[in-house]
Automatic annotation (TrEMBL):
<feature type="transmembrane region" description="Helical">
    <location>
        <begin position="247"/>
        <end position="273"/>
    </location>
</feature>
<keyword id="KW-0675">Receptor</keyword>
<protein>
    <recommendedName>
        <fullName>Gustatory receptor</fullName>
    </recommendedName>
</protein>
<keyword id="KW-0812">Transmembrane</keyword>
<feature type="transmembrane region" description="Helical">
    <location>
        <begin position="6"/>
        <end position="24"/>
    </location>
</feature>
<dbReference type="GO" id="GO:0005886">
    <property type="term" value="C:plasma membrane"/>
</dbReference>
<feature type="transmembrane region" description="Helical">
    <location>
        <begin position="150"/>
        <end position="168"/>
    </location>
</feature>
<dbReference type="GO" id="GO:0050909">
    <property type="term" value="P:sensory perception of taste"/>
</dbReference>
<dbReference type="GO" id="GO:0007165">
    <property type="term" value="P:signal transduction"/>
</dbReference>
<feature type="transmembrane region" description="Helical">
    <location>
        <begin position="194"/>
        <end position="217"/>
    </location>
</feature>
<feature type="transmembrane region" description="Helical">
    <location>
        <begin position="285"/>
        <end position="304"/>
    </location>
</feature>
<feature type="transmembrane region" description="Helical">
    <location>
        <begin position="83"/>
        <end position="103"/>
    </location>
</feature>
<feature type="transmembrane region" description="Helical">
    <location>
        <begin position="45"/>
        <end position="63"/>
    </location>
</feature>
<keyword id="KW-0807">Transducer</keyword>
<keyword id="KW-1133">Transmembrane helix</keyword>
<comment type="similarity">
    <text>Belongs to the insect chemoreceptor superfamily. Gustatory receptor (GR) family.</text>
</comment>
<dbReference type="Pfam" id="PF08395">
    <property type="entry name" value="7tm_7"/>
</dbReference>
Length: 407
């Protein structure tokens, strides 16, 4: 049972992932028969994914000379070093993304198979326990959430495209080629974030369905409720294990995604400082789209953190739903036993998300994440003020380096 709106949105997410080769094998989706299975062209798609990764890696070559020599960065060494740091992170992100997909291809395909088995196995719980209208309302609300997130991603991409075009020093074939190369990488980052959104929405949906099943089971007056509660407990444990496997397999990709988001936030705010002090000239449209880029970028970052926190919280707060069984005056022996087993299971198995297995990402970490971006921008501002007071010729370094290379 899947709401048509949520199904269409997930298809959009899936198509973005397929175009940029972000899945290890394709799926065959037949909505009219409600059938989803692995496609048989996985080897062909693997070669396609390989060429996409090589293409993204090679087209970075067209970005560097144009930006450093003819662009707005040629007189600011801070912007130059920031650009090369972002370029290095893009290389790391591409290698991590497609390296994970190629090296762990069989594990990811096995995860797909297990996920399809999981959906078929526990589908009867949603039909038997959860009210159809409540389930459809839940799926419609999740569809609205992911549509807003996709809209934010494309709004940030539009603002970034306009600004990148205005910042071109010379409009020629080389500069337009460099702009196209950068936009291709922006679209790749957008697809990676969108795929992460889709995974989080599916996990959030399953944990919320478990909550609905527990609520429906509490108000249900029927014998042998303990069997249904055992099925719900099994579903929760399998969903938690599935979430852990997903977070583990895509850990390197997600870590590079968050690092790139961190550096992108610093870069955007530092560019805003350059616009504000007229170091970079801008007209009214540039200021408008620049402010829009700041708002949409940080809004999207906060919404991503919120969605991740909602998934973790909905998993770990399942025990709060079980507390409502304490108001039942008389509970059978088997029912009490299943409640005790489920409660012990929830205490021993808690979901958390760590970047690279080191930093746990929660609400306090989110605030530290945003605070670190602001702190680094303030440090760069201090360096920029000092550079303006003490003129130097460091900004000529990269220009001489590329001139010497061409000779």
């Amino acid at each position: 049972m899947l709401h048509p709106k949520l199904g269409r949105v997930l298809n959009v997410v899936y198509c973005h992932a397929v175009v940029f080769g972000l899945v290890s094998t394709t799926l065959r989706i037949r909505s009219h028969r409600k059938c989803i299975r692995l496609d048989k062209v996985s080897r062909t798609y693997t070669f396609y994914s390989f060429f996409v990764g090589i293409f993204l890696f090679l087209n970075l070559y067209y970005v560097v000379p144009q930006i450093v020599q003819d662009g707005y960065m040629k007189s600011n060494i801070v912007l130059q070093w920031s650009f090369f740091a972002m370029l290095l992170l893009r290389v790391v992100a591409i290698v991590a993304c497609y390296g994970t997909l190629w090296l762990k291809r069989h594990q990811i395909i096995r995860l797909y198979k297990n996920s399809l088995t999981y959906w078929k196995r526990f589908g009867h719980i949603m039909k038997a326990l959860v009210d159809r209208k409540e389930l459809l309302d839940l799926q419609a609300s999740l569809a609205k959430i992911i549509v807003r997130k996709i809209a934010l991603l494309y709004a940030a991409f539009l603002c970034s495209t306009v600004l990148q075009y205005q910042l071109l020093g010379v409009n020629n074939k080389q500069s337009l080629l460099a702009l196209s190369a950068r936009l291709t990488h922006f679209l790749h980052s957008l697809s990676v974030k969108m795929a992460f959104y889709g995974i989080l929405v599916l996990l959030h949906h399953q944990f919320l369905v478990i909550h609905l099943a527990i609520n429906a089971l509490h108000g249900r007056k029927a014998q042998k409720k303990w069997k249904s509660l055992r099925s719900v407990a099994s579903m929760h444990l399998q969903t938690l294990r599935l979430a852990r496997r997903i977070f583990g397999l895509y850990d390197v990709i997600n870590a590079t995604m968050f690092i790139n988001m961190f550096m992108t936030g610093i870069n955007i705010l530092y560019h805003a400082v350059q616009f504000s002090n007229s170091t970079i000239k801008a007209d009214g449209w540039g200021i408008l789209f620049g402010n829009g880029l700041i708002v949409f970028n940080f809004w999207g970052t906060l919404m991503l953190m919120e969605m991740l926190d909602n998934v973790v919280t909905s998993c770990n707060n399942t025990g709060q739903q079980l507390r409502q069984f304490s108001d039942i005056p008389k509970v059978g022996t088997r029912m009490q036993k299943e409640l005790d087993v489920f409660t012990m299971q929830l205490r021993r198995n808690r979901l958390f998300y760590k970047i690279g297995g080191i930093v746990e990402l929660d609400k306090p970490a989110c605030l530290s994440y945003i605070g670190s971006i602001l702190s680094n921008v303030v440090i760069l501002m201090q360096f920029d003020l000092r550079r303006q007071r003490v003129p130097n010729n460091d900004h000529q370094y990269f220009t001489h380096l590329f001139n010497k290379t061409e000779m």
